[in-house]
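Hi,

I'm pasting everything inline rather than attaching a file, because the server keeps stripping attachments. The sequence lines come first, and each chain or strand is labelled.
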Amino acid sequence: MSEQAKEQTLAETAPSRYECRSCGYVYEPTKGDSNRDVPPGTPFEELPNDWRCPVCGARTSQFENIGSSGAPSGFQENLNYGLGVNRLTPGQKNLLIFGALALGFLFFLSLYGLR
Ligand SMILES: [Zn+2]
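And the predicted assembly:
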């Protein structure tokens, strides 16, 4: 019982986003779909059966769960593996990547300074 409750917590705090495999459109549960009268906060699983991708018209079965924006990326079971990178949210990953880029740029500039 407690195991199940724990698994549900992650899904409840941040509903999963779904990406259209045909065109790359991402359904954001927090935004809903104003074109189809889907109110913000509607999980993908509760969309009407006749809901289609607003961009290319693909069925909901063509969508892939890409996880929520707020929760750590990667599968929940994998969170403890792999140097802890899987625990980072996408925002933190971006910070890491751009931070590394900025450092590389500064290093590049310092080479110019030496000439
Ligand atoms: Zn689409």
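The chain has a mean pLDDT of 81.

If the labels don't parse on your end, tell me and I'll reformat.
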